[in-house]
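ok, trying the design again with the full structure, not the truncated one.
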């Protein structure tokens, strides 16, 4: 039996999107914010008039966050609390929330009171316009410039340029996803911020709207400038998966041929030095360099071949296609 309940008093706002809502909130050491967060979010969801549930993911909190969440859940049957055995990070918490969500629309948000639940109505209104993903944009952000704003701005520019999905604020947790778009997304590492990119790859229509952002009142931020480097590494993974997932030999092969080309160039220069400048082979580091480049180049090519074998095994063993069909007319082939 579903735990999503419909408020007694329903409003007519945004009646086009008459669907149930699942609000996913990761929590890590937010004991001072729990009561105000729950009160505010429940009040807003009741005003919207849709069936709703809130899924709190306690990400290994060491304070009394879980106890406070448990007390709230005891009073509201449509509030779920999932407790991790240890801290796994925001991506794992979001993945767990999605796994436990029953609503047609899944709305992640932060537990630090910097997001305003009242913006949920605006996200839903934008979905009504035909979008599948609506991302929040903290246009007037209340964070430190050096340790938060500047790294975030650089990261967002880089992500938008490489991914081709133009958003101002990938780091904003407040978003709205149609269930069918996000349920198939598998999250790893720090990939939660890239979900709109994954959705776009699946053909989803993605947009963003400005949302309210408040300065943190209680607790301590879990983010720092060091996370920027993790974002860059994850971005490299995203770019590889988007461009070369089904043809990894192109990456490893090009790297291998580049090394082999450099080895040939170094060998030619070594011969020139020998016969035109009377410089012995052993007087330069070129023989060692050539040997290293040859070995590395061959290894890259072989790694590419192994990656190709793995990809074919992955697709064929699970009967996975390398494409996704949106629709088909007058054909008996399954979509």
């Amino acid at each position: 039996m579903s735990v999503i309940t419909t408020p007694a008093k329903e409003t007519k706002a945004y009646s086009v999107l008459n669907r149930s809502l699942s609000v996913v909130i990761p929590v890590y050491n937010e004991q001072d914010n729990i009561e105000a967060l729950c009160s505010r979010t429940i009040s807003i969801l009741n005003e919207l008039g849709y069936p709703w549930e809130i899924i709190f993911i306690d990400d290994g909190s060491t304070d009394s966050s879980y106890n406070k969440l448990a007390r709230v859940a005891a009073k509201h049957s449509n509030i779920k609390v999932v407790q991790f055995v240890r801290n796994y990070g925001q991506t794992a918490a979001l993945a767990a929330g999605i796994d436990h969500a029953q609503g047609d629309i899944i709305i992640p948000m932060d537990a630090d009171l910097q997001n305003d639940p009242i913006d949920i109505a605006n996200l839903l209104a934008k979905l009504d316009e035909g979008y599948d993903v609506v991302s929040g944009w903290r246009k007037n952000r209340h964070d430190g410039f050096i340790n938060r704003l500047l790294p975030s701005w650089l990261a967002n520019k880089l992500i938008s340029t490489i991914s081709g999905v133009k958003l101002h604020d990938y780091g904003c947790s407040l978003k709205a996803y149609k269930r069918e778009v996000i349920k198939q997304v598998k999250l790893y590492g720090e990939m939660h911020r890239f979900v709109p990119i994954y959705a776009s790859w699946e053909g989803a229509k993605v947009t963003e709207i400005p949302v309210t952002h408040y300065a943190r009142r209680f607790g301590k931020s879990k983010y720092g400038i060091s996370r920027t480097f993790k974002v860059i590494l994850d971005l490299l993974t995203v770019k590889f998966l988007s461009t070369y997932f089904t043809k990894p030999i192109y990456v490893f092969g090009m790297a291998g041929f580049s090394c082999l080309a450099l080895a040939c160039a170094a060998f030619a220069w070594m011969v020139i030095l020998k016969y035109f400048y009377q410089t012995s082979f052993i007087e330069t580091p070129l023989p060692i360099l050539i040997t290293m480049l040859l070995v590395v180049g061959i290894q890259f090519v072989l790694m590419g071949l192994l990656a190709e074998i793995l990809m074919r095994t992955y697709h064929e063993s699970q009967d996975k296609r390398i494409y996704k069909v949106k629709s088909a007319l007058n054909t008996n082939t399954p979509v």
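Keeping the full-length input from now on. Residues 8-17 have pLDDT under 50 and may be disordered.
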